[in-house]
User: Fold this.
Amino acid sequence: LNSSFIALQSAPLKRAGDPLPRHAYSSRVLAGQNTPPILRATAINPGKQLMLLTATDEDSRPSPSAEAAPLWAVANISVASAGQLQKARGDVVVPYQGPDIQDEYIHRIFFRVYEQPSRVPRQDLGNYGQLRRWMSRHALVGQGARNGGKMSELLMTAVRKRPGSTVTVASVAANPEFAGLISTGHRGHRPSQCKERRRKWQEFVFLDRR
Assistant:
């Protein structure tokens, strides 16, 4: 599985709820597998020395208002490792672990790479909460990171088990509605609404089901 992040200094990054560009999609990540996908960061801004990588399952939140638990978090990655992020050496805050999916729905796994303004100090590397607070202080969380061009993201989909039939993932060209559906968050929605919305994602993602 080969995947690339969209260019960090490319056209303005999409805001929450906007359709992601076609090249931001990959095929899928299977739940329960603890080998990270092959990832590359491309076209990094000149002068940047360090990157930070995170992965989260946006559909495994304990509540709609809760933060998504991290599947992976590595700080202080040298830009020299941008071509092989899955093998990059850095300060591992959360070792990679495959999604722990407990339902039959498609889950959205977001891999995000950030340009670090400076090295993350040791006292902020103890756990993910400490790392997030450091990121927040440096405008690497939420719209600040998106609007400032400091972050780029790659969306993958994960399933609990390998389907028994041939599975292909819908592209934006094949289904124009797919991007809008899958990139829309579910904060504030009732569980029943979330469930119905994710049924729709499944209909768009699995084109060949038996």
Strands lie at 2-4, 29-30, 38-40, 50-57, 70-78, 91-94, 107-115, 151-159. The domain at 2-162 is CATH 3.90.280 (Phosphatidylethanolamine-binding Protein). The CA atoms of residues 51 and 115 lie 5 Å apart.
